[in-house]
Sequence to fold (116 residues):
Amino acid sequence: MVKMIKPLSDNEMREDVFNFLNGRFEEIPRAYRILARRPEVMFKFVDFRDEIMRKGILNPKLKELIAVKVSEVNKCDACYAIHKKKLGDVEFEFDEKTEVVLDFAEKVAINKGMMM
Fold:
């Protein structure tokens, strides 16, 4: 049985961690409240996440769609909610490229990064 990790409340967080997260989010997501238990890991995760979402070959909207798809596959409700919220209520028309990218992301997530 997996033991659930309790997220930290605002008062339980280190001050620098709270100020950092409070400056990034309207409401600090549960996942970040859990990561705040290990600030060194949380800060590295944030750097990693920011680097992935930086402008590049894929546009930011497509990156969020990929994050939603991977969150779905991994059954991570917290991540799903965060990425879905970032997309907003915008309707998307998926072209063939988008469908292929999302299908690939789903397969990678299902196979835990292993492509055969």
Notes: The CA atoms of residues 64 and 83 lie 6 Å apart. Residues 56-116 form one domain. Helices lie at 15-24, 30-35, 39-53, 60-73, 77-87, 96-110.
